[in-house]
Specification:
The relative contact order is 0.09. By secondary structure, the chain is α+β, with helices and mostly antiparallel strands. The protein contains ten helices and 24 strands.
Length: 511
């Protein structure tokens, strides 16, 4: 029986459509991702700018657009026009007051790149929200009202961006329509802002004159500012290089899980925090300092020749080495700092004031340990950071700074930032935050409430020889008369304490 030609045509057409869809999905998967945040003073137009980006780049679904038009008439602040800020200001209080309170995340994609945008609040009391939104950002958009210029909040937000180690800053001078699109207004603001960024040691700043509400220079170049010869904001965001910002030099592979599905396989699972690891590489396991070579790099999709951040992989080694969660695999020519005592910039995020007598949990990569704040060195005046004794992480010699800083500083309260010294119960493997954001950052967790009390950016290790009465607790089982038949129970209890960050040395009777 012959098959009708129409059926063959339909089958061929269906197969072509499936191939096209598969090719499109494969191409979409290969796009790189840009994480960015917006920050600025209240009513500078952060939410409006992002809403305009989504609207003009045709990235809104029909139901979103219908809801936006309906909400603009009901609770909008743009008259008869669409209020694009409502795309992000979702809380009732945000819509009533016309401000951003919570961090709003939006995802969209263009033909060249994927984006995750964090719309962060501008008010001083929500500093911790901005820190949260910017902790993973590659780029920051700092908005300025063209009528107001560089103000106190502009300096504060720029300092926080620099503190977080964000390497790319976009200065968006918004509401140019309210100053008649004047070139001199824009140039004066840019001059003032560059003076600020130079004092903070920030190099990569790109400036745009915008009108977010009207869409000028957002997605398309504006004819109302012929004196501006740069790209539109979206064109810049699609092409700004950020892949080189990661540390591809120093291998840091914190072990998250030991995979042992059967007797023939033993692998170490984790996410490559920095550096590149290849099959056959010589590596060192920390803290044991045992040397071996990489046997294979395994993923769900198969074996890789090499892995790089932020890939999650399973590494197998040629030699049997005792490695567990919290250990780290590195290259022998690039060893991180190994210790328990360091100085750090700390952002206090808890409603409860800092209690220096409390033993906080410190979460650093896959390690969790007890820690103590042993010295509060200084506080930063966030509203005028250029007059503070310490500007941004990595911008000065910390050891010299420590020697000359007044240590009689009161504990931190909500949203305060400053330099403190921390001692941990367990040995950590870390780098300075300025060198490696992934291994230079941590959080402090309140042991009672389980709240995130603070985030920290490590500046440098400190000498541990000056510490007094800080020896690791030792449990001498023979001296206590504990017989070997109780060792299993003791080991289980010690492992449980180690998971809580309490390191204990156990002495057992020799076999």
């Amino acid at each position: 029986m012959a098959i009708p030609s129409s059926c063959l045509h339909n089958t061929y057409h269906t197969m072509n459509k499936q191939t096209d869809i598969r090719a499109y999905l494969d191409a979409d998967e290969q796009k790189d991702l840009l994480r960015l945040l917006t920050a600025g003073s209240v009513d500078d137009g952060k939410s409006t700018l992002i809403g305009r980006l989504l609207f003009d780049s045709k990235k809104l679904y029909d139901d979103q657009l219908a809801a936006l038009e309906r909400d603009s008439k009901r609770v909008g602040n743009a008259g008869d026009s669409i209020d694009y800020a409502l795309l992000l200001d979702g809380l009732k209080a945000e819509r009533e007051e016309g401000i951003t309170i919570d961090v709003a995340y939006r995802y969209f994609s263009t033909n060249r790149r994927k984006f995750i945008i964090a719309d962060t609040p501008g008010h001083e009391q929500y500093t911790r929200n901005m820190i949260t939104g910017g902790s993973t950002a590659d780029l920051a958009i700092i908005l300025i009202d063209a009528r107001k210029g560089v103000i106190t909040q502009t300096r504060r937000h720029t300092y926080l961006v620099a503190l977080l180690g964000i390497k790319h800053i976009v200065l968006a001078v918004n509401k140019m329509d309210l100053v008649d699109f004047g070139k001199k207004v824009f140039d004066d603001i840019v001059t003032d802002y560059r003076m600020l960024t130079e004092r903070l040691g920030i190099g990569d700043v790109t400036c745009f004159p915008l009108s977010a509400r009207n869409g000028d220079n957002v997605v398309e170049r504006s004819s109302r500012m012929p004196w501006y010869d740069g790209p539109a904001l979206l064109d810049f965001l699609e092409t700004v290089p950020v892949h080189t910002d990661r540390n591809f030099t120093d291998l840091r592979f914190p072990v998250q899980y030991v995979l042992r599905p059967d007797l023939n396989f033993r692998g170490f699972c984790g996410k490559v925090a920095s550096g590149v690891v290849s099959q056959g590489d010589e590596v060192v396991a920390l803290p044991s300092m045992k040397h071996t070579h990489v046997k294979s790099i395994v993923t769900y999709d198969g074996t890789l020749h090499e892995a790089f951040p932020p890939q999650s992989v399973t590494i197998t080694l040629q030699d049997e080495i005792d490695i567990s969660r919290g250990d780290m695999i590195v290259h022998p020519d690039s060893i991180p700092h190994i210790g328990r005592h360091f100085t750090t910039m700390l952002v206090w995020m808890d409603e409860q004031p800092m209690d220096t007598s409390k033993k906080f949990f410190l979460k650093h990569n896959t390690n969790t340990t007890r820690s103590t704040i042993i010295a509060v060195r200084s506080k930063v005046d966030v509203n005028d950071p250029t007059d503070s004794p310490f500007h941004v992480a990595g911008s000065t010699d910390v050891r010299t700074q420590q020697a000359t800083t007044d240590t009689d500083v009161s504990p931190f309260t909500l949203n305060e930032i400053g330099q403190v010294d921390i001692l941990t119960a367990k040995t950590l493997f870390f780098d300075a935050y300025a060198d490696n954001r992934q291994t230079g950052a941590f959080i402090l967790i309140d042991p009672i409430t389980n709240n995130t009390s603070a985030v920290g950016m490590i500046l440098a290790p400190l000498d541990e020889s000056t510490l007094e009465n800080d020896a690791t607790p030792t449990l001498d089982l023979p001296a206590l008369g504990i017989t070997p038949d109780h060792y299993a129970a003791i080991d289980a209890a010690v492992r449980d304490l180690e998971r809580q960050g309490l390191e204990i040395e156990v002495i057992k009777a020799h076999d």
